[in-house]
Amino acid sequence: MSIYIYRITAGQERVVGEMLAKKVKKDSLPIYAIGLFEDLKGYLLVEAENEVAVRQAAMKMPHIKGILDKPMQIEDMSSLMEQAKPVGQVISKGDVVELISGPFKGEKAKVMKVDENKDEITVELSEVAVPIPVSVKSSTVRIHKKADSA
């Protein structure tokens, strides 16, 4: 098994990764992992049995510009893995958070739903007349009070 690298339209890595995962599952292709690194713009890494499977998965897939000629071995990935940032805060349903950017900056809200795949949370603003659910990136909030200590 080797790591193959797709060249992707910058900013479309997550979209392509999700479409690729669906296609791999639907067609039962021998692709075992899809890697997305925030610091590696324009590239998507896949672990696969062979290059044929990688090329087959990329067929008619929008935003895939090509595949790099030389595959990587898992050992070559150690430097990328070391650079990967650990999750700074774990946000759970029921936590009270403060929004630190965007139109609701400074507002406090209760977490109603956490979507780890998209790195989004759905919050309900606390100090409004009619509570409306708002989806925001988890990086745009700071935990004010954990649910278990509330």
Class of secondary structure makeup: alpha+beta
Gyration radius, to the nearest Å? Answer: 19 Å
Q: For the residues shown, what is the average pLDDT?
A: 86
Question: What is the molecular shape?
Answer: elongated
Distance between the ends: 48 Å
The fold-level CATH name of the largest domain is Alpha-Beta Plaits
Please give a structural write-up:
The N and C termini lie far apart (48 Å). Helix content is 19%, strand content 33%. The protein contains three helices and nine strands, in the order E-H-E-E-H-E-H-E-E-E-E-E. The radius of gyration is 19 Å and the shape is elongated. The protein has two domains: 2-83, NusG, N-terminal domain (Alpha-Beta Plaits); 96-149, SH3 type barrels (Roll), CATH 2.30.30. By secondary structure, it is α+β, with helices and mostly antiparallel strands. Strands 8-7-6-5-9 form a five-stranded antiparallel beta sheet, with no helix packed on it. Strands 2-3-1-4 form a four-stranded antiparallel beta sheet, covered by helices on one side.
Topology diagram in text:
Elements: E1 2-8, H1 13-27, E2 31-35, E3 43-48, H2 51-58, E4 64-67, H3 78-83, E5 96-99, E6 108-115, E7 120-125, E8 133-137, E9 141-145
Antiparallel strand pairs: 1-3, 1-4, 2-3, 5-6, 5-9, 6-7, 7-8
Summarize the structure.
The protein is α+β, with helices and mostly antiparallel strands and 150 residues long. The protein has 3 helices and 9 strands. β6 and β7 (120-125) form a beta hairpin.
